[in-house]
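Thread: sanity check for a docking pose with coenzyme A

Original post by kr_44:
Hi all, I'm comparing my docking run against an independent structure prediction. Below are the sequence and the ligand SMILES. Could someone generate the full complex and paste the structure tokens? I mainly care about where the ligand ends up relative to the chain.
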Amino acid sequence: MLPANVDVRLAVLADAPTIARFQIEMAMETENKKLDANVVLPAVEAVFRDANKGYYLVAEIADDPGKRPVVASLLITYEWSDWRNSVIWYIQSVYVDPDWRGRQIFGKLFADVIHRAERAQAKFVRLYVEAENHRAVAVYESLGMKRLPYYMYQYQVIE
Ligand SMILES: CC(C)(COP(=O)(O)OP(=O)(O)OC[C@H]1O[C@@H](n2cnc3c(N)ncnc32)[C@H](O)[C@@H]1OP(=O)(O)O)[C@@H](O)C(=O)NCCC(=O)NCCS
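Reply from moderator J.T.:
Ran it for you. Here is the predicted complex with coenzyme A included:
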């Protein structure tokens, strides 16, 4: 399939409903989990109100100047590394509209992230992925990402 002609840009608050819809669709697709839109939309909007939380990138189709539909998004968040005195970036909430997959849209988003990370002097770009999400694993490895030897743990604090 031909690569899609997309532009990657920083998301703005007006993109929040689309990004929230992508997250709801992704949770259903990848984990069969039904997310509550009344939780997800304000959570997406919160990122635009507080730059410390991170930022979203979106990819929009460039062919039709009148429409430019947004077909993919991701969230960048930060982790401080005292070992390295530098920041590690995390790619989260990656979603490409099913109709547009396999057309190098994530590849283009990823290249943009790496470019921004270089400029920000981030040491690494990381992400975590559900172990059974074989397609996403294959995509990340084909883009040169290396698997790390960590387990991820969590402790539930509040219901
Ligand atoms: C995983 C996902 C983000 C990939 O997006 P995409 O736009 O289809 O990926 P791309 O077309 O940019 O592919 C990137 C690279 O991976 C390769 N690739 C794509 N699909 C692949 C597959 N099934 N197996 C192996 N490699 C694959 C591509 O060839 C491309 O490499 P290239 O640039 O050398 O050609 C997308 O499938 C998605 O949104 N999935 C559902 C949500 C999800 O799983 N999110 C991740 C949660 S961690």
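Residues 47 and 121 are 22 Å apart (CA to CA). Hope that helps with the comparison, let us know if your pose agrees.
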